[in-house]
Structure formats: C-alpha cells, structure tokens
Design a protein that fits this description.
It is a single chain. The protein is an alpha/beta fold. It contains nine helices and five strands; from the N terminus they run E-H-E-H-H-E-H-H-H-H-H-E-H-E. The protein has helices spanning 30-44, 60-71, 81-92, 110-120, 122-145, 148-155, 158-170, 181-203, 219-228; strands at residues 2-9, 50-56, 99-102, 209-215, 232-235. It has a five-stranded parallel beta sheet, sandwiched between helices. The protein starts with a strand and ends in a 6-residue tail after the last strand. 30% of the residues are buried.
C-alpha cells in the first residue's frame, strides 16, 4: 500500500499564472524563512521517501541537476515552493532525487468560454468576476496577516478545496445546445489532472510514502483520483500542518 500525502500550496514566487492574483510577501525574508522551516519540520514527521512537485515531467533531469547543485552548496534557493518546500525537505531527509510529475494536458478554453459567457451568460460572468475579486481580497489579506503554516492549513481545508473546485464545475453552465464550451473547460481541467496522476502512478511502488506538493486548485481532483485508486492510502495533510 502506498501512502500519499498531497499538500496544496500557493505559489511562493507569485508568478501571476493563476486566475486570482496574489501579493505574496518575500519568501526569502527572515520571518518567512522561519515560518517555512516550521512547516518543513511538521511535514518531516510524515517521513516521505519520495517528494513529487509541480514541475514538468519532461524536465526532471534539469530539475534534479538543480537539486544536486543545491545539496552540494552550489545553488541558492529561489522563492518558489518547489525549492523552498520540495528541495529543502528532500535535502533534510537525504533524498537522492526529486520527482517532477506536472503535465499541462490539452489546452483549456478559458478565454473562449468567458467570451461566450459575456454574450450569452452575463450572469455567470458577473458571478465569476465577483468570486475572483473576493478571493483576491481574502487571499491577500491572509498573506499579510497569517503565517505560511496557517495559510497552508486554510487552503488544505475541506471547505477551501470544495470552493476551488466549484469554480470549474460552474463552467458547465456555459454553453447552449450543441455548444459545450464551458464543459470543455472542466474536461480540460480533468485531462490535465489525470495526466498528472498518471505521472505520479509511474513513480509509485508498494510501501512508498509520497509527499506531493502541488497548487491548491488541483487538490479536489488529485484527491478524488487517489482516494478512488486501489493500493493508495490518502493521508490527510492537515494531520501534518
């Protein structure tokens, strides 16, 4: 039986790639480094023997060259969560490598669906925009007032996971007749996460204890796939945060 702990996270380096835009404090500051260390200490109690991260599966070699350089004292960590959480914990546990499992899947027609909604489903578009605006305000307030560990506990909670997934489910209301543009958004999101899960399965062996560090928006689907799969025991991340 493989034990799998999926840690949902936000993007420490704030690349602006998600729908909601965050204003993330400098994760290299003394205060944030101390908070990250506390999170790593808690996660180490899970005793993972493999750590997988949201890095392209076909870039695994370059990722591990960077990880090896870090372990050799020849690379200074950047702000992103792959390095601040994945590299640091793997090195702390003396792991020889990091596992890259990300896949972008088929193109997701977000823009086309939003453009269609603007004309045919303006109520949906208004709700979507209001939801994003509310998330941005709440998330940016959390960034200013909560520790890294407190934010991670919040975004890994059942309520947050459900809310993140609901925005994709809502897209199925966009479309008319034979136009399933909104459903294609959800299908594309499933496609990406199924491919990520397939990459994860390829590194699994019996009795592994795997820590998967991924953007929190992926939690609902990755947890669904893992919990439905024979041979995988899904571990609650809140037990280690």
């Amino acid at each position: 039986m493989t034990q799998l702990l999926i840690l949902g996270t936000y993007h420490f380096a704030n690349p602006g790639l998600d729908m909601a835009k965050l204003e993330v404090p400098d994760m290299l500051s003394t205060e944030k480094q101390r908070e990250i260390t506390a999170v790593l200490t808690a996660l180490a109690a899970f005793r993972p023997n493999k750590i997988a991260v949201e890095a392209a599966y076909d870039k695994a070699e370059s990722l591990n060259q960077l990880y090896a350089a870090y372990r050799a004292g020849q690379h200074e960590l950047t702000r992103n969560e792959i390095q601040q959480l994945g590299f640091r914990l793997a090195a702390q546990l003396a792991h020889e490598q990091i596992y890259a499992v990300d896949h972008h899947g088929s193109p997701i027609p977000f823009e086309a669906a939003l453009e269609y909604a603007e004309v045919h489903h303006p109520d949906f578009l208004t709700k979507f925009q209001e939801t994003l605006a509310r998330w941005e305000v709440e998330s940016n307030r959390h960034q200013q007032t909560l520790t890294v560990g407190e934010i991670l506990r919040l975004i890994n909670s059942p309520a947050a996971i459900a809310a993140d997934h609901q925005i994709y489910l809502d897209f199925t209301a966009v479309g008319t007749g034979d136009n399933y543009i909104g459903a294609e958004v959800l299908a594309g999101w499933y496609d990406r996460n199924i491919r990520i899960f397939a990459n994860l399965r390829q590194i699994m062996q019996s009795a592994d204890r795997i820590l998967l560090i991924y953007g929190a928006g992926h939690l609902a689907l990755l947890r669904e796939l893992a919990s439905s799969c024979t041979g995988i025991e899904l571990v609650n991340s809140l037990d280690y945060l």
